[in-house]
Automatic annotation (TrEMBL), chain A:
Pfam family, one: BPD_transp_1_N
Principal cellular location given in the protein's record: membrane
Regions crossing the membrane: 12-30, 119-141, 153-178, 198-216, 257-278, 303-326
Domain ABC transmembrane type-1: 117-326
Keywords, sorted A to Z: Cell membrane, Membrane, Transmembrane, Transmembrane helix, Transport
PROSITE patterns assigned to the protein according to its UniProt record, in alphabetical order: ABC_TM1
InterPro entries membership: BPD_transp_1_N, MetI-like, MetI-like_sf
Protein name: ABC transporter permease
Organism of derivation: Nocardiopsis coralli
Family: Belongs to the binding-protein-dependent transport system permease family.
Membrane topology qualifier: Multi-pass membrane protein
Localization (cell): Cell membrane
UniProtKB/TrEMBL annotation, chain B:
Keywords on record: ATP-binding, Nucleotide-binding, Transport
Source organism of this protein record: Nocardiopsis coralli
A GO molecular-function descriptor: ATP binding
CDD domains named in the record: ABC_NikE_OppD_transporters
Family annotation (InterPro entries): AAA+_ATPase, ABC_transp_ATP-bind, ABC_transporter-like_ATP-bd, ABC_transporter-like_CS, Oligopep_ABC_C, P-loop_NTPase
Keyword Mitochondrion: no
Family from the record: Belongs to the ABC transporter superfamily.
Name the record gives this protein: ABC transporter ATP-binding protein
Length: 337, 598
């Protein structure tokens, strides 16, 4: 078991290294190939309408005229040991996992992301709970009562859910549930630690909106998986033992059905943690996704790189958790441990 | 049909089926009548065999006994009574109380019939507690261990915590049987319990069922496609065909003096291990001459190109010479895990002359398929040499092999998955010609049609897709595909093991006729001892990657030198109730001796 964990951890770290390299390549090497000069790149970092002197200073400070390899080593060193940025007399410390320094907000990137992380995590966790419970329940009932009115309505709704983007359902929800009928409060994000009740009230609508999209997909997946499982020989064995239908479904059929869903769940949570851009924007939540989109609009490259890397970390972490959970969910996986 | 009517009603019958009819409605078509008026009775402690080919309705019948058609579209009429309970009229609750408690079922494929994600202990305990809700976990667990011990699982107290994938196929089937025994059922219903198992394992499982039945006084219903499987285990047998019982009676009587023509045909089609290659060949040729005469053709025995085995063993080069052939596979230990070596075949060697058939017999995992794949050069051997017509082909490149592909062809086991469902039969057969450079489409078509007729299909089948054909017909297509390039050697890897006995017989005849007509050389790989004997001049017995015995087929079968061959022969089911019981007694004694010496 320990070797299994270590092996998976190793694979995760390797993956992160690759992601780092690719990210670096996209933001530092690709522009060069496209003919962007170091000054041009510096301009992206500095913001609008800089003076030539400021540009030259930035080029020098970030080492943008250095060979790519040197820049990469610098970048990785920043990640591992931290970096210092000097502005004339002022020196800013960017501590250990230094994802870069934003010249627009004049601060290191990581603390800014960490500031916004609780919002995104609240969103991801709450939505995931809703979409898993909702999606799986609907999927199971649909599969068991295949062809029934419930099944048809649920699957049509799921189809609609899958095909409607957040900025549509979200805006509809805002327009009617909040502004027209006043069912949900209009207020800003309140941290869980400050006021759990308000936190819940504020987050509920974003949760439901984000969950709706995913729940639809999970319901369809669960239904398909369940129908397949119900045809398995071991389900017939379970019935032949004299087990009640409830036991057959919830003990024997549900577990194999959920096994592949755990995998998708890991990926989805990882992705949402990296920033549910649309949901955060629609509901004015100041999370990681919103931060990233603002950075893109204002050409704040270090922030974009930072969010990309952090997003990758979440996906890798969630996958790691799934990999570790997998042998518990499906004992057959243990053979290779 | 006189003998199929209900016999005098026994008062102690534990299963009573009267005029059972099961049909399935199909959209836009007439209902499929799977069972049409079946009646039989099983006295307490008795044993009944239900035998029939695929589509005969035997599995539908066993599901009806368990009431497992509930919730499906099946329409059931007639009466089914198990332990005094009317299955068709019972409420769901009554039915659940019956299942597993009065009647327990053992299914065909032990790989699929246990839940992969729960320990066997969990599944056994559950089977007990559902009918004994007051029993504690510990009681149920003790009972599970006892039950596992009863079916011969070694170290049951430890193994109870294992998952199904940690057992071999035969052991899993024992676990399924143990699960059936948890509540001391009055009837054990075994639906093809040994079809997925090797011969020796099959014999063990059948012996176990027989022993349990005697010791526990359980009634046994054994459902099988193979008369030989039920021969030694049941008192009475019902032969089913197209949903009807064509014959019913004492197993000895049915096997010795079958009344119905279908039973007779079925018995004739079962390959018998005591029939030699020469006898079978003579019979096939005689039948063919007869048939051709009736059709107005005259076939003289001399016309058979290979009537006398050509290629006498001395002097000339054999068609195929294999020496010290080995294949190693690296077994990987997952991501970055250390790999270990596994020798699938080790040091195999033989000569094969033109017009001869080499039979390769062995159980699953014996390396017989790997060996044939190496000969075919689908795999590159790790060690040793393969010479084809005196030329070393062991390490030829794929490019250099291409002309050779014409000469060596293969027929695979599963006719359902070895044909591409989206390619017409004509194209499937003709593609090989095109690949080998034939451009004239008309010519390809002519050749394919001629061949289709030769293998017993019609040229009108050219544009049909594989799904329109039965298993036997598909295997004929596969044979035609192998023949189109006029190969010198055909490797048949379990060509008949997926087929019903009667179809199997037809395909074997076809292969034999084709050998006569074209002077073909075969390597015939199979696990069925009787089939291998009847088609092979020489036989190689494989075990764990090694050839343990090789020789003339008659010598190997009549005077086996290796213990393994002897145990295989002792395990092969025979079509005689008394002989089969005698063999069982021998096996039981042998096992007892083994136990005693250990």
């Amino acid at each position: 078991m320990l070797t299994y964990i270590l092996r998976r951890l190793g694979a995760g770290l390797l993956l992160l290294a690759v992601v780092t390299m690719v990210t670096f390549w996209i933001f530092y090497v690709l522009p060069r190939w496209a003919g962007v000069t170091p000054q041009g790149m510096a301009a992206m970092y500095v913001g609008r309408a800089p003076t030539p002197e400021a540009l030259a200073a930035t080029v020098d400070r970030l080492g943008l005229d250095q060979p790519v390899a040197v820049q990469f080593v610098e970048f990785v060193r920043g990640l591992l040991f931290g970096q210092e940025f000097t502005f004339g007399r002022e020196t800013v410390e960017c501590a250990a996992p230094c994802l870069g320094y934003s010249f627009i907000t004049n601060s290191p990137v990581l603390p800014q992301i960490l500031d916004r992380l609780p919002v995104t995590m609240s969103l991801a966790a709450g939505a995931a709970v809703i979409w898993v419970i909702g999606g799986v329940t609907v999927g199971v009932v649909s599969a068991v009562k295949k062809g029934s009115v419930f099944d048809r309505i649920a699957m049509s709704t799921a189809l609609v859910g899958v095909s409607m983007p957040i900025y549509f359902t979200g805006l509809l929800a805002l327009a009617f549930l909040v502004h027209q009928w006043g069912l949900f409060p209009v207020s800003r994000y309140v941290p869980l630690t400050e006021d759990p009740v308000s936190w819940f009230q504020v987050m509920l609508l974003p949760w439901i909106t984000l969950a709706f999209l995913h729940a639809a997909q999970y319901a369809r997946q669960t239904r398909a998986g369940m129908l397949e499982t119900l045809n398995e020989d071991y389900i017939r064995t379970a019935r032949a033992k004299g087990l009640s239908e409830r036991k057959v479904i919830f003990k024997h059929a549900l577990r194999p059905t959920l096994t592949p869903i755990v995998t998708i769940l890991g990926l989805d949570i990882g992705l949402v943690m990296g920033g549910a851009i649309l949901t955060e924007k629609v509901f004015s939540l100041n999370g990681v996704g919103a931060y990233a989109i603002d950075a893109i609009i204002s050409n704040d490259l270090p922030v974009v790189i930072g969010v990309t890397l952090l997003g990758a970390v979440f996906v890798v972490l969630c996958n790691l958790v799934v990999d570790l959970l997998y042998p518990i969910v499906d004992p057959r996986v243990r053979i290779n441990a | 049909m006189a003998s199929t009517g209900p016999a005098a009603t026994a008062p102690d019958a534990v299963v009573r089926v009267d005029d059972l009819r099961v049909s399935f409605p199909i959209m836009d078509a007439d209902d499929v009548h799977a069972v049409k008026g079946l009646s039989f009775e099983l006295p307490a402690g008795g044993a009944l065999g239900i035998v029939g080919e695929s589509g005969s309705g035997k599995s539908v019948t066993s599901l009806a006994l368990m009431g497992l058609h509930r919730g499906s579209r099946a329409r059931i009429s007639g009466s089914v009574e198990v332990a005094g309970q009317d299955v068709n009229a019972a409420s769901d609750k009554q039915l659940r109380a019956m299942r597993g408690n009065d009647i327990a079922m053992v299914f065909q494929d032990p790989m699929q019939s246990l839940h992969p994600q729960y320990t066997i202990g969990n599944q056994l305990v559950e089977a007990y507690r559902v009918h004994h809700p007051k029993a504690g976990r510990a009681t149920a667990r003790a009972r599970a261990i006892e039950s596992l011990e009863r079916v011969g699982i070694p170290e049951p107290a430890k193994r109870i915590n294992s998952y199904p994938h940690e057992f071999s196929g035969g052991m899993r089937q024992r676990v399924v049987i143990a699960m059936g025994l948890m509540c001391d059922p009055k009837v054990l219903l075994a639906d093809e319990p040994t079809t997925a198992l090797d011969v020796t394992v099959q014999a063990q499982v059948l012996d176990l069922l027989d022993e349990l039945r005697r010791d526990l006084g359980m009634a046994l219903i054994l459902v099988s496609h193979d008369l030989a499987v039920v021969a030694g285990s049941v008192d009475e047998v019902v032969v089913m065909r197209h949903g009807e019982a064509v014959e019913r009676g004492d197993v000895r009587r049915v096997l010795a003096e079958p009344e119905h023509a279908y039973t007779r045909a079925l018995l004739d089609a079962v390959p018998r291990v005591e029939v030699s290659r020469a006898q079978r060949r003579a019979q096939d040729r005689a039948d063919r001459v007869e048939r051709d005469k009736a059709a107005g053709r005259i076939t003289e025995p001399g016309e058979f190109a290979a009537f006398t085995p050509s290629g006498t063993t001395d002097g000339d080069t054999p068609l195929l010479r294999v020496r010290d052939l080995s294949q190693r596979f690296k077994v990987r230990g997952g991501l970055w895990g250390r790999s270990s070596d596994f020798w699938a075949v080790k040091g195999a060697g033989f000569d094969l002359h033109k017009g001869q058939t080499l039979g390769v017999v062995g159980e699953s995992g014996s390396g017989k398929s790997t060996l044939s794949r190496m000969v075919m050069r689908l795999l590159e051997p790790t060690e040793g040499t393969v010479e084809f017509e005196g030329r070393d082909i062991t390490h030829l490149s794929e490019r250099a092999l291409r002309p050779l592909r014409r000469d060596i062809q293969m027929v695979f086991q599963n006719p359902y998955s070895s044909l591409n469902p989206r390619v017409t039969v004509g194209d499937a057969i003709g593609t090989a010609l095109r690949v080998q450079g034939e451009r004239n489409r008309g010519e390809i078509r002519n050749q394919v049609c001629e061949l289709l007729e030769r293998v017993g299909l019609e040229s009108g089948h050219y544009n049909r897709f594989p799904h329109a054909f039965s298993g036997g017909q598909r295997q004929r297509i596969a044979i035609a595909r192998a023949l189109i390039l006029k190969p010198k050697l055909i490797i048949c890897d379990e060509p008949v093991s997926a087929l019903d006995v009667s179809t199997q017989d037809q395909v074997l005849r076809l292969l034999s006729e084709l050998q006569d007509d074209f002077g073909l050389t075969y390597i015939f790989v199979a696990h069925d001892l009787a089939v291998v004997r009847q088609v092979s001049d020489r036989v190689a017995v494989m075990r764990k990657g090694e050839i343990v015995e090789m020789g003339d087929s008659d010598t190997v079968y009549e005077n086996p030198q290796s213990d393994y061959t002897r145990s295989l022969l002792a395990a092969a089911p025979v079509l005689d109730a008394d002989e089969s019981r005698r063999l069982r007694a021998e096996r039981v004694q042998g096992r007892a001796q083994e136990q005693a010496t250990v």
